[in-house]
Design brief:
Elements (H helix, E strand, L loop, with lengths): L9 H4 L1 H4 L3 H12 L7 E3 L2 H8 L3 H15 L2 E3 L4 E3 L3 H4 L5 H7 L10 H8 L9 H12 L10 H10 L13 H4 L4 H10 L6 H11 L3 H11 L3 H4 L9 H6 L10 H9 L1
Antiparallel strand pairs: 1-3, 2-3
Length: about 260
């Protein structure tokens, strides 16, 4: 991690930032400079942040959640990862060598679904650097690099509504195009999974893992009633590909009833 961070003057002219009170401006600027790395996806400790800013921990967490929501930042509090999707807008790499060097910072980022989001978003990255960005990710992450394939209609719609993804530069065919024998099992999984998003990526994960379908369905029956998956209307249910790549069917879970019993004891 570098010893200092640059603060782009455009940060202060951002319409959302201008609407913040002094405390929220401090928290937003701290996110860019306090614990950040060179890629905008990094380990983040609210305890350290509270100490650095002189704000009580509970107050910091409450206010920082609001800042993240207003700026569309992603904070995985479970594992302690913060992702700033507009990072490249204010911290553009100068050349391909900078991209390669900066991506070494991924080695220090804990495992989180936010890493996949980082890999997929090249909206603010110089178009001349996107190919080396995607190639370096593949080299560094190997099979963990998230790939996705969609129909032309879906792709056109997503280009209009969501950030440009790096995996458009490094693609592979989905399960339905490469292995019809496994498609029936995948369809059972897809019908059983409570958050059906990013099917193309999920198909690839299924083709790679090839888990026993009966075990998967049984595990989902238990996990869909777990505390983490029920909380906040399922907000913390991982995407299907993330769950498959993590071999989620092997996880031990705390069901809502078990959690209630622990709270009562």
């Amino acid at each position: 991690m570098a010893r200092y961070r640059k603060s782009d003057p455009r940060f202060w002219k951002d319409e959302k930032i201008r609407g913040f009170d002094p405390t929220d401006k401090l928290l937003a600027q701290y996110a860019f400079t306090g614990q950040s790395n060179r890629i905008g996806c990094f380990a983040f400790s609210p305890g350290m942040a509270a100490e650095d800013t002189g704000i009580p921990l509970r107050t910091f967490v409450k206010r920082f959640r609001q800042v993240c929501q207003r700026l569309n930042w992603k904070w995985d509090e479970r594992v302690g990862v913060l992702y700033l999707p507009t990072w490249w807008r204010y911290n553009q790499p100068e050349n391909a060598n900078n991209v390669i060097g900066n991506l070494k910072d991924l080695d220090d980022v804990p495992g989180s679904p936010l890493v996949a989001e980082f890999c997929e978003n090249v909206t603010y990255l110089d178009p001349k650097l996107r190919v080396v960005f995607a190639q370096t990710l593949v080299e560094r992450l190997g099979e963990r690099y998230p790939k996705r394939s969609v129909t032309q209609e879906q792709e056109q719609k997503r280009e209009q509504e969501t950030p440009l993804r790096a995996d458009a530069l490094v693609t592979a065919p989905p399960l339905s195009a490469t292995n019809g024998a496994g498609l029936a099992d995948f369809e059972r999984f897809w019908a059983s999974y409570p958050k059906r998003k990013h099917r193309g990526q999920a198909e690839r994960a299924w083709a790679k893992q090839r888990p026993p379908i009966d075990t998967v369905v049984s595990a989902l029956e238990v996990q869909r009633r777990s505390r983490d998956w029920v909380k906040d209307d399922g907000q913390y249910i991982p995407y299907p590909a993330t769950w498959l790549n993590a071999k989620g069917w092997l996880d031990e879970v705390v069901r809502v009833s078990d959690a209630d019993e622990d709270d009562d004891s």
